[in-house]
Each structure stands twice: as structure tokens, then as C-alpha cells.
């Protein structure tokens, strides 16, 4: 079951990240580096981790013009990460260009292509959040549309809330399409700013490929014990 867990390294320093990695690396499949740690520790730190054999999901959620995102994607591929993501809201051309340029670059250098995911709607957002920014669809419809578009553009999968797993599986006809879900809260944790949450056990039973967990583990006094508790919950 540890093969399903991605731990979000949402900490402010490289030293804290290294300490957590050391204590829990045998309990997770991969580590996620997001905006906070990337801004603090930089791309060299990412390279150090990938060089030591760790699987890294670089969660920088690119959203810019197609050329900029595609070129950033190539730089990410050079870092040797296992997975990275772009906002599906950036549109079809942005996603297609990124897939094409990253694939061509990796083929020309004989590198393994990182998996590229589309972020659908953030798990901290709900129908009200979408209304505020002028999107009239429900979160469920918006996620489904963005997941279908991501699949059509050749992305390897999407990031979505566990509540949308079923509707994505029903609407995307690719068996290899990955679904990665944050917004995971074990029975012992609180939701914080996440709005569309679910327990790890429920998410896995709905057929998710990977669950991303951050604060329920990081804010616990003993992250290793928290992960062990989650693994027991899942089994
Ligand atoms: O602490 P928590 O378990 O809520 O962490 C979830 C992680 O997943 C955070 O790093 C957050 O940035 C990320 N994430 C998310 N929703 C998305 C994509 C990424 O919560 N749609």
C-alpha cells in the first residue's frame, strides 16, 4: 500500500525536508516538492534528491503561455523528476506543446520522460470558489471537462479531488490514465483549508493511483508513526 502514497514535503527548509525523507522514505512511494520548498531550496536540491534515487513529483502547477510552459517542462525533465504538473486551465495548446517538447527532448537524450499531470480544480475550491471567478459549471463538471481535455492532449493523468475519481474514470476512456488525489484526510486528521476531502481508504477503494498527503503527517509529532497509522487504516 505504501506504493500509493506520495508525501507532500511542504516545509520551509532543505534541512527539514532531509530529516523527514530520512525518517519516512521506506513508507512512501514518492515525495512531492511544491512551491514553498522549491522556492526555498531551489532546483539543485531537486537534482540532489533525484540523483540519490528518490522519486520526486515536482508540483509547480505551471500555467503560462504554451512556449513558456513547454520550455519549463524541458528544464524539469533535465532535473530527473518522476512527475510534474501543469494547470489544465492553461488550455489545450499549452498542454499539447508541453507533452510534445518534453517527449522529444527526452527521446533525444535517452531520458525517461516524466509523467505530466493536469491540475483540474484545486481541492481547496468548491462551487462557490468557481462562481467567484466567473465559472458557472459545478466543480464536478469542470473537473470532468478538464480531465477529458488533459487526456485528449496526451497528458499522463490528472490531479483531482477524490470525490471526482468515479466521474473521471467514467468519462476518460484510457486505462493508463493516472488519477492523483490530494485532499486526503485520515480519520485522525482535520480538513484545514481542503474542502473536498476523503479518507485514504475510501479514495483507494474508488480506484485512485496515488494519494498525496501533507499536513496530517507533517504536523504530527511523529511523522513516521502517522504514516504507519495511515497504512494500517488503508489495510
Ligand atoms: O497538507 P495537505 O495534505 O492538504 O497537502 C496537500 C498537498 O497537495 C499540498 O502540497 C497542495 O499544494 C497539494 N495540492 C492540492 N490540491 C491540488 C493540487 C495539489 O492540495 N489540486
Characterise this structure:
The protein has 235 residues and is an alpha/beta fold. It has a single domain, classed as Alpha-Beta Barrel (TIM Barrel), CATH 3.20.20.70. The protein is 46% helix and 15% strand. It has ten helices and eight strands. The chain has helices spanning 14-24, 35-51, 66-78, 92-109, 127-132, 139-152, 165-171, 200-205, 215-218, 223-234; strands spanning 5-8, 30-33, 56-62, 83-87, 115-119, 157-159, 178-181, 210-213. Strands 1-2-3-4-5-6-7-8 form an eight-stranded parallel beta barrel. The relative contact order is 0.14.
Count of distinct strands: 8
Widest beta sheet: strand line-up: 1-2-3-4-5-6-7-8
Distance between the termini: 8 Å
CA radius of gyration is 17 Å
Overall CATH class: Alpha Beta
* Overall number of domains: 1
Quaternary form: single chain
Q: Do you know the CATH topology? A: TIM Barrel
State the helix count: 10
List SSEs in N-to-C order. Answer: EHEHEHEHEHHEHEHEHH
Q: Mean of the pLDDT scores?
A: 96
SSE-based structural type:
alpha/beta
**Beta-strand level of the residues, as a percent range?**
15-25%
Described by the principal axes of the CA atoms, the overall outline is: globular
Parts with pLDDT < 50 across at least 5 consecutive residues: none
Amino acid at each position: 500500500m505504501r506504493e500509493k502514497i506520495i508525501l507532500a514535503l511542504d516545509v520551509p527548509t532543505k534541512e527539514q525536508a532531509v530529516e523527514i525523507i530520512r525518517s519516512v522514505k521506506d513508507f512512501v512511494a514518492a515525495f512531492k516538492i511544491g512551491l514553498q520548498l522549491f522556492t526555498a531550496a531551489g532546483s539543485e536540491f531537486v537534482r540532489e534528491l533525484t540523483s540519490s534515487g528518490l522519486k520526486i513529483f515536482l508540483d509547480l502547477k505551471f500555467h503560462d503561455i504554451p512556449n513558456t510552459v513547454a520550455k519549463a517542462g524541458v528544464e524539469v525533465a533535465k532535473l530527473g523528476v518522476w512527475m510534474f504538473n501543469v494547470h489544465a486551465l492553461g488550455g489545450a495548446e499549452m498542454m499539447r506543446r508541453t507533452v510534445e517538447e518534453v517527449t522529444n527532448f527526452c527521446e533525444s537524450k535517452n531520458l525517461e520522460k516524466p509523467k505530466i499531470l493536469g491540475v483540474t480544480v484545486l481541492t481547496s475550491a468548491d462551487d462557490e470558489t468557481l462562481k467567484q471567478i466567473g465559472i458557472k459549471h459545478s466543480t464536478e463538471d469542470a473537473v470532468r471537462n478538464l480531465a477529458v481535455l488533459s487526456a485528449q492532449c496526451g497528458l499522463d493523468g490528472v490531479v483531482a479531488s477524490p470525490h471526482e475519481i468515479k466521474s473521471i474514470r467514467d468519462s476518460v476512456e484510457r486505462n493508463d490514465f493516472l488519477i492523483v488525489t490530494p485532499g486526503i484526510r485520515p480519520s485522525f486528521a482535520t480538513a484545514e483549508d481542503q474542502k473536498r476531502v476523503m479518507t485514504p481508504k475510501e479514495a483507494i477503494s474508488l480506484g485512485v493511483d496515488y494519494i498525496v498527503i501533507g499536513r496530517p503527517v507533517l504536523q504530527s509529532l511523529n511523522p513516521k508513526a502517522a504514516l504507519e497509522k495511515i497504512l494500517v487504516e488503508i489495510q
